[in-house]
Amino acid sequence: MLDAARAVRPDLYAVAELFTGSEDLDNVFVNRLGIGSLIREAMSAGDSHEEGRLVYRYGGEPVGAFVQPSLRPQVPSIAHAMFLDVTHDNECPIQIRSPYDSLPSAAIVSMACCAIGSTRGYDELVPHQISVVKEERHYTKWNPEAEAEAAGEVSLESGIIAGKVALCRLHQELAAKGFIQVYVDQVDEDIVAVTRHCPSTHQSVVAVSRTAFHNPKTHHYRDEVPPMFIPGKIEEVVLEARTVERHAGVYTKDEKCINGMPEYTVEITEHIQLKDSRIVKQAEVTSKGPNEFVQEIVFERLTPGSVIAFRVSLDPKAQELVGVLRNHLIQFSPHYKSGSLPDSDAPAILKKPLKSIMSRLTLADMNVLLFRCDAEEQEDGGGCYTVPSWVALKYGGLQGFLSVMADIRAKNDLGHPFCDNLRQGDWMIDYVSNRLLSRGGPLGQVGEWFQAMFGYLKHIPRYLIPCYFDAILVGAYTTALDATFDNMSNFVQTGSTFVKLLALGSVQMCGVGRKPALPPLSPDLEDVPYRLNDSTGKKEQCCVSLAAGLPHFSSGIFRCWGRDTFIALRGLMLLTGQHLDARNIILAFAGTLRHGLIPNLLGEGTHARFNCRDAVWWWLQCIQDYCRLVPDGTDILQCPVSRIYPTDCTKPQEPGVEDQPLYEVIQEAMQRHAEGIQFRERNAGPQIDRNMQDEGFNVVVNVDPETGFVSGGNKFNCGTWMDKMGESEKAGNKGIPATPRDGAAVEIVGLSKSAVRWLVDLYEEGLFPYAEVTVQRDDVEVSWSYDEWNDLIQQNFEKMFYVSHDPKDPNEKHPDLVHKRGIYKDSYGASSPWCDYQLRPNFTIAMVVAPELFTTKRAWEALEIAEKKLLGPLGMKTLDPDDMVYCGVYDNALDNDNYNTAKGFNYHQGPEWLWPVGYFLRAKLHFAKMIGQEAYDETVYLVKNVLSRHYVHLERSSWKGLPELTNENGQYCPFSCESQAWSIATVLEVLHDL
């Protein structure tokens, strides 16, 4: 960048040297809107995309800078110390430039927003360097009456002292009155204009200096000076001064005193009207736009060595509008009281505090106000705002704007395309208000508030729009957050910033689209939200649904997944207090039960796929959690469920045709598993899965009568969350599941144990009418109690799942496949026995939901091994790195002949998924308590250390979420969802456990 500047204009580069006293300028410029021709011409050489930059050693902030929060992120900067026109060890400027340059250079320094300094010799025009080592003379005495020719005395007539006094007085005034913003403009090769601006009153002082690097006596300076355009109204000329030559002898070095050049002095006039200026020829007010006016200044005697400073205010109408706007911003911060004006004609919507308007918003409304990614916006007929020549924002709601501005604000990056867009037109401003106005209702009122505030914003000078747009949105955003947390549980309201950020993930993921994502609930169910359909005019349910992840799983048929929903529901909805929405989701999925299973891909219920074995157990776990965590939670068991498929083969039924209480649906799920489930997916073939082999469409689930374990699947399908299906014909893995996990998957065994234990307790409390299921054994129907089922799993779990240290363990069917001892198997009875023995994080799930299955000492050892082998910076490795097929980098676009990685075949074979880390940490906390206080204290330290990395990621993420997965060692994975529901939920659950 600087090389380009030097190459294009070496003369202008020399001006920049002034700011550091050195040609080493590589670190002088920072990404801010500011310095004029030097940077603009350098950019035209193709070195930068920013509009301009400001010399940051010059101090202060750029004009139009953002209001910074009291707590703000650290950004790289150089501490401002003292800015000098010359120091004792620098070469005397008169020797390398000319005496005429001393005054304008001093003026440039005096306009700096930091401490300034000089030497007395500079002010007295001593034409040589004063050696601090060898010089033995003293400076001359001060005598205000001294004549110009007087030897050994100085006064205001000497050198540039009179000008320096006025400039220092101005410097002190600007500091005292809060002129903390700076803009430096290189008008041409000789003229530098520096603006100091007060962000509360929006008054400016503009100092224009015409440098004289070369002596005007020997160098020709062009007579024509370009006009200047100063925005606003010039109130006065603060000072105008120029260096002049007089008849007072010539310089002769005094042997007794340090003396300056007597032949030069300063002509100075202070505090005059523009019409009385001897430097300005004329000034005319011109329009720069419909709401911005500038004064065109034509110079007559801005000779080399001259300085003029103007005091400038906004156009009176703009000043009034800014004052009124600041008055409305006081509700967010007292910072805006300064410079504010009352608004007697305020629109009615602005007479109410925004807090009051937002108090009417539901959390579903907050989803619209704050979030909604591009796919969600497009589904509703819109889209996220796109900044031309840059990118589309992450969200249509306020978070999309705040995420960008958070980065821009900290750096005051006013040259960013986002700020350009705001200065160039009202498109972004109108997007914010119109998007909400179109919604009507309480959201429409928030849109009216924005529209009214923007009514003032649109009529102030364009260079101020970015900072006030930011102020409006920050105020509205923080108010929205307060209103959001007011609608959440005490756990959130009294929680840490981290808890609140995670809880905000529930608002991000839970919303209502233009088209309902959930199947309808029973008409007899109370407290179901309804709305009028815009197209049909008919009343329809508008229940909140939970997106699996953003942006890939946020809209349409891919928004709702049974497994994802119920892994995330406890953390995102129950712990945050969104009990009614959680109830509705539980009951909506209950209505889709078919073959005893809850669908994987929901497809609004009527286009569901029942190809997973675990979703139904996560659903049952959530009902259990609902009953425990929600006041009178067991009432949900009596709620009516409208069955879409009363039998496996019926066509979809309308809501209300076939209603059952929820407890009947639960019993049916348990009964069907006990009987055994076997069916072929409907519409089997490429129309529902283009990669699946034919046998993969056959779904089988049963309960092993010897162990009580829920088992199922085959090597051609994947029925758990590790569900990557091979897609590469080139590598030969098409139609082959990477992780079939058939047999009894460890987390399903844990979840089923949790469910049957809970049903035993419910029955004993009289809250569930069934104590048993019936099964066929030897062609005889027999009863099998939940108590017996519970005991059977308990008796067999460690026998079959624990990998003992004893090589002769009689329970070990495949001792030759054991490669790690002291762990728990990932499955039992897989068609490929090797898979049973793979170290994966799934056993930690069973530890949390059914800790009674585990012996404390064994559990602790297994957790220690998992920590050492699987724990990554943010997530858990999905496979032991010692495994021969481990690969920690997921690349779904790669298609080569590598069977193990082509087309992302290793999705669950090493990449580090975030949601299992929540279960690992919760399991560690549980068993640490049982080990002892020391182990527990160490585990709490571990948990906080691990979660601190999630906190940092969440803070820095423009999505304000936690990703689906990372590549090995926490590296970014471009194929991951940027924000995943279950990732956020399970981390929040850890904090709840703490």
Got a strand count? 36
Low-pLDDT segments? 1-56
| Rg on CA atoms, Å | 37 Å
Shape: elongated
- The largest beta-sheet arranges its strands as 3-9-10-11-18-13-15
Question: What is the makeup of the main sheet?
Answer: 7 strands, mixed
**What percentage of the residues does DSSP assign to strands (E)?**
15-25%
Structural class: alpha+beta
Mean pLDDT over all positions:
90
How helix-rich are the residues, as a percent range? 25-40%
Q: For the terminal residues, how far apart are their CA atoms?
A: 51 Å
What does this structure look like?
This protein is α+β, with helices and mostly antiparallel strands and 994 residues long. The strands form 14 sheets. A seven-stranded mixed β-sheet has the order 3-9-10-11-18-13-15, covered by helices on one side. The chain has a three-stranded antiparallel β-sheet with strand order 12-17-16, with no helix packed on it. The protein is elongated, with a radius of gyration of 37 Å.
Can you describe this structure in just a few lines?
This protein has 994 residues and is of the alpha+beta class. 35% of the residues lie in helices and 15% in strands.
Could you name the key traits of this structure?
994 residues; 35% helix; 30 helices; three-stranded antiparallel sheet; alpha+beta
Indicate the topology:
Elements: H1 2-8, H2 10-17, E1 29-35, H3 37-44, E2 53-55, E3 61-62, E4 82-84, H4 93-96, H5 102-110, E5 115-117, H6 120-123, E6 138-139, E7 141-142, E8 153-154, H7 161-176, E9 181-186, E10 191-197, E11 204-210, E12 228-231, E13 233-245, E14 257-258, E15 264-272, E16 280-289, E17 292-299, E18 306-313, H8 316-329, H9 354-358, H10 363-370, H11 374-379, H12 398-411, H13 417-424, H14 427-437, H15 441-457, H16 465-486, H17 490-493, H18 497-509, E19 510-511, E20 530-532, E21 539-541, E22 545-546, E23 549-550, H19 562-574, H20 579-590, H21 615-629, E24 640-642, E25 659-661, H22 662-675, E26 677-680, E27 698-703, E28 710-712, E29 744-745, H23 746-764, E30 772-777, E31 780-785, H24 786-801, E32 827-828, H25 833-836, H26 843-849, H27 856-870, E33 876-877, E34 912-913, H28 915-931, H29 933-956, E35 965-966, E36 979-980, H30 981-993
Parallel strand pairs: 3-9, 4-5, 6-14, 7-8
Antiparallel strand pairs: 1-2, 9-10, 10-11, 11-18, 12-17, 13-15, 13-18, 16-17, 19-22, 20-21, 23-36, 24-25, 26-27, 27-28, 29-32, 30-31, 33-34, 34-35
Helix pairs in contact: 1-2, 1-3, 5-7, 12-16, 14-15, 15-16, 18-30, 19-20, 19-21, 19-30, 20-21, 21-23, 23-24, 23-26, 26-28, 27-28, 28-29, 28-30
